[in-house]
Amino acid sequence: xxEEAVVYxxxxxxxxxxxxxxxxxxxxxxxxxxxxxVSAWKGSIFKLDAHLDRFEDSIRATRLTPSLDREGWRxxxxxxxxxxxxxxxxxRFIATRGVSTEVIADPRKNTPTEIVWAAPYVFxxxxxxxxxxxxxxxxxxxxxxxxxxxxxxKCVDRLHFQLAKAEALDAG
Length: 172
Hints:
This protein has 172 residues and is of the alpha+beta class. The chain has helices at 26-30, 48-62, 70-84, 127-132, 159-171, and strands at 6-9, 12-15, 33-41, 44-45, 89-99, 111-120.
């Protein structure tokens, strides 16, 4: 494992403590970004092509124009995992709309921010929970209706999921 996690951001590999985005990035300001998450197990990335397919669908749907093509994203994902030396990892790759040069942003004119971040894989349940089961609940929170945002596209706006998680944690 690397001493400090390494993140890919806009063409450079940086220590996590030096990786940042602008407070004016549309991904931060408006949740105008897409992502996908893939897992690595024992050094192999699981179904990377399927995740890249979905990511490309999200790029097309949001009309983002990242500088990385499919092979560029693949290379950045693989290299980020290698640099972190995580045999088992959760790898998140993100494209935001980027920083606008205008106060009222024209979403067609921005240069996307590109990020790949890997972290050691963390199970949602401990060994006992995975063996015997865990307590679950159905939250009253719902996602976006499919006629407002196609659920096949993974956007970063996950507030409803965070509120549902807080509700479940409060319920024990």
